[in-house]
């Protein structure tokens, strides 16, 4: 059986490779699985069966893309399957078909799983996904191989996905489900080189980047079928998925969808050329834009994230290469170039088949009237809604999702400016979230970008804890980036961090009038002059409030208070305190250490060293007791992280001659995460 | 008790029960007709300044204090309550509020009242006579913050009960402080329940906080009983 699967795999790989790896274990796993009675098990069986039956020729396209997405979906789908009988049926049906050798359907089933769960059917997906299921399964098995050969591979979750019945299958299942996505890559590597990743130096010599035909993403049949693709040496980590679904009664209708988000600083060519000293270690050819661009597009295509947040996108490259290519891949793109003379900017793209745009705000952090905000950085805040597609027709839209993308100031000395830029971004997000709230909807948030700040230093701390006591901190310590310049003359931060005229308070929220979607305008929608406490409080010490009313009767000890007196205590307290806060609940996808080795993971590397400065933050789904969940109380609130593409350690990257190199086209790595979003069942 | 007795009359305002054991003292008491005229000094309606944030309603601050040593009398309440001023916008509110002492810093039997313009902080006012109030007793030290949160919620129309809200009172007493919010229709349970829930939320009250709803009719009756004025005219 294992062989068969492999065959499939290879076939998927266009048969170029001979499978070096034979996995008997995976097979066994599958077999065991088969014995399991529950749906999940069944599915598995079917899968395996299908694989067996799968003929290489059949599987041509789309698996790579399919893998990650599908995989996850798969596991989840099963979870969900436990929930709604319909889904189960669908799944089963699909599988049945598969069994009959109809790979396409299988594919669909899996692919659509996420969508099924959410009743989404992507037409294209349907048509183009052939043989996915087979592939997937293969991957599952491959997982095992991976585990064997790559001791690095960590299985995060030992949980049973949907196995109510806890038998051997329980253990196996998770494996199968968990590891798939990166396996694609891993397997191939394995098969070809048997190379042990962390093995150390000489990597470049040893590694023969296998050229294999990159199957066309199933969503985009128009792409060429064969492209040389170099393996990305990164692993996909499935997140621990406790299976609550098995606890949820069947009657509860719950749908969910999966989506993936990539954040990627792609290194603007102009910046590269202006800072060549940072890339002296790189072979010249990897610094060439045309070369980097092709690698970049392949990488994007490989993962086909549903949402793509790019930084350092050079304007001409955006218009000439990236936008056309991304459009062709099915993305809708929003671009914002930096103000000033720099030629790059941010681009946020989303797959038009998955999301519909509700609103876009392009933020400029440069404020000519404010001395401190003199830097030309930008951000994009997007409000989108997932499309729920049934039989090629959009039947509904899911809950709103706010996607923010930014590239904060680099200058390590200007921590205060970074904080102010961040505050502007957070205020805009807050306004978007409030505008949804005013309509009774919960808006989940994903914040991506290059924050030019390292983990657990003040700026990062503000984001993830929602609070930062900044008074007296040296400005060059805010980001934690190494300050190469003279460290002796640094400034200390003092309240207020920025003037009131910025229109943003110390809660990183807009104060009055600065923005359309502030609480004020929301309140006016209700046609009542309704003000929140926070709104009223911000006028406490406005000039008009400090003038003693002429008609105020003087009662000694009662009405002879001078506002200035109370101001010192209270103003610091209530107004611009020494603490900066924000009200968004954000968590980082990456934990900044590689799970196995405990080595720091890094997102960027150049001649002066490596660091983590890129992040994907998201509003996490907070745990509720299962019974609460059953009431659907928290439906749609919070995202569940179901997997992410692991980063690498500095050592490993140096062994590849640093960044950029022949595999990674930028001096940053891409960040990629997959989330699950609950959609209220109608 | 004697002291309390005295106290009742004078202070009053918002809360009754200022001292434990005493019947509710009068809130505002009985005012002779002529007195009434005085109290209601009709001012021209205040309006929001240019660019200010208008409130849904105009409000008036009142202040009252028991005069030490004076016997309770029907007049004393009225004599002791003073209009501090009226406002129509968020900014104007702060203008008054910032020049006023925080209730927690008040000494003696004192009350701040914040009522919609045109409604007197008395049971007898037309807007109040069918009404009642939610009462929350606070240990010392909490009054300033709770009062501020209460009135910000009221000014900001957070109670969402239409025009039902009449005003709010904070009463500083010897061992405790009391805040209350008055509404028009005591018999409207949906409204009173909503007010209660909003109170809990905006004051961030622990779930076990005791909240008491009292109709003004009961307050008056208690006051009259206590003073042996059942048949007297003032009370209603």
From TrEMBL, chain A:
Pfam families: Exo_endo_phos (PF03372). InterPro entries: CCR4/nocturin_mRNA_transcr, Endo/exonu/phosph_ase_sf, Endo/exonuclease/phosphatase. Residues 262-668 form the Endonuclease/exonuclease/phosphatase domain. GO terms for molecular function: 3'-5'-RNA exonuclease activity. PANTHER family: CARBON CATABOLITE REPRESSOR PROTEIN 4, PROTEIN ANGEL HOMOLOG 1. This is Angel homolog 1. It comes from Nothobranchius furzeri (Turquoise killifish).
UniProtKB/TrEMBL annotation, chain B:
One of its GO terms (biological process) is regulatory ncRNA-mediated gene silencing. One of its GO terms (cellular component) is P-body. Transmembrane segments: none annotated. Residues 1-37 are annotated as: Disordered. It is found in: Cytoplasm, P-body. The keyword Cell division does not apply. The keyword Ubl conjugation applies. Pfam families: IF4E. Keywords: Acetylation, Cytoplasm, Initiation factor, Isopeptide bond, Phosphoprotein, Protein biosynthesis, RNA-binding, RNA-mediated gene silencing, Translation regulation, Ubl conjugation. One of its GO terms (molecular function) is translation initiation factor activity. It comes from the Eukaryota. Coiled coil: none annotated. Interacts with EIF4EBP1, EIF4EBP2 and EIF4EBP3. Does not interact with eIF4G (EIF4G1, EIF4G2 or EIF4G3). Component of the 4EHP-GYF2 complex, at least composed of EIF4E2, GIGYF2 and ZNF598. Interacts with GIGYF2 (via the 4EHP-binding motif); the interaction is direct. Interacts with EIF4ENIF1/4E-T (via YXXXXLphi motif); increasing affinity for the 7-methylguanosine-containing mRNA cap. PANTHER family: EUKARYOTIC TRANSLATION INITIATION FACTOR 4E RELATED, EUKARYOTIC TRANSLATION INITIATION FACTOR 4E TYPE 2. Belongs to the eukaryotic initiation factor 4E family. Component of the 4EHP-GYF2 complex, a multiprotein complex that acts as a repressor of translation initiation. In association with GIGYF2, assists ribosome-associated quality control (RQC) by sequestering the mRNA cap, blocking ribosome initiation and decreasing the translational load on problematic messages. Part of a pathway that works in parallel to RQC-mediated degradation of the stalled nascent polypeptide. Recognizes and binds the 7-methylguanosine-containing mRNA cap during an early step in the initiation. Acts as a repressor of translation initiation. In contrast to EIF4E, it is unable to bind eIF4G (EIF4G1, EIF4G2 or EIF4G3), suggesting that it acts by competing with EIF4E and block assembly of eIF4F at the cap. In P-bodies, component of a complex that promotes miRNA-mediated translational repression. Involved in virus-induced host response by mediating miRNA MIR34A-induced translational silencing which controls IFNB1 production by a negative feedback mechanism. This is Eukaryotic translation initiation factor 4E type 2. The lineage of its organism: Eukaryota, Metazoa, Chordata, Craniata, Vertebrata.
